[in-house]
Amino acid sequence: MTNNNLYQFHGSEYRHLKNIPRKLLYKEFLNTGFILFRDFEDIESDLISFTDEFTLRYAKDTNRRETRLGNENIKNVDIGNKEIKLHSEASFAPSWPEILWFFCKKPSEKDGNTTFCDAVKLWNSLEKDTKVFFLGNPIKYVLSLPIDIKKKSKGKKKWFLEEIGASDVSLNWETSSLEMNLLRFGVTECRFTNKLSFSNHLLVDLESEPQILSRTLANNQKIPQDIMEEISEKSSKLTFTSNWKKGDLAMLDNKRFLHGRESFKEGSERDIVLVQTLKAKI
Ligand SMILES: [Fe+2]
């Protein structure tokens, strides 16, 4: 990775994940919010037993993603080869994961790196007026979240969802989806560091996120253009790329680090899988 603030554990020192001193691992994760594990042996077969150590509950991912490596908690990353701009995974949804685990089975030959950005640094870099704007103005996401409904019925039904910021929640039997408006601030407090972080879904193109039908301020107005330009410019200055090596595992605080993807050549065999810890044990 091309960022010297990240902490790396190396297989040449520890060989297997189980040999890493847990106290050190926890300390570095809490400090940096991002750990790269490189050149370990058998990381693929150890993956879920390792993530289990840090996980109280896994996220039930959208059913658009295929299950991988024989475990329902390991999924493909988003399909396609287009660029995906920076976002915090599912930051618009009631189930917002706390830790993401990216495992690189095969990097693409060229391009197709995962991009990352420390959203604590991004928040700290914003103009004071921009901070005032986001501290006082929640974002309204209009959502249609696919869900597994066993029993089929017809039409829409009002639904009770105990989620702060949720309104107009309904279950749509026709489309097997949960629909709602969700108010959520663009800035949040990190779960592990208590620092403020600009973790949200404001930069990503809505075409890459079909669950978001619209994204505005609470009063249905757009975010002012100059503010969008500032966050776009400052986030790209802070963005670094994964430079994946086969067998790499990245562990990141999803409420602190944004991620995205560079585009890559169609037909490339890039193979990266994702595990999402909804509630962490740390
Ligand atoms: Fe993502």
Overview of this structure, please?
The protein has 282 residues and is an alpha+beta fold. It has 2 domains: 7-119 and 239-280, Double-stranded beta-helix (4-Layer Sandwich), CATH 3.60.130.10; 122-190 and 198-233, no CATH class. The protein is built from 6 helices and 19 strands. It has helices at 11-14, 22-32, 43-52, 119-125, 128-136, 225-238, and strands at 7-10, 34-38, 55-58, 67-68, 71-76, 84-87, 99-106, 114-118, 139-146, 156-158, 166-172, 177-184, 188-189, 196-197, 212-217, 240-241, 249-253, 257-261, 271-280. Strands 1, 2, 3, 4, 5, 7, 17 and 19 form an 8-stranded mixed sheet that branches. β13 (188-189) and β14 form a beta hairpin. α4 (119-125) crosses α6. The longest helix is centred in the last third of the chain and has 14 residues, at 225-238. The chain is globular. The two termini are 25 Å apart. The model has no long low-confidence stretch (mean pLDDT 91). Bound molecules: fe (ii) ion. Fe (ii) ion (FE2) binds next to loops. Fe (ii) ion is lined by residues 87, 89, 259.
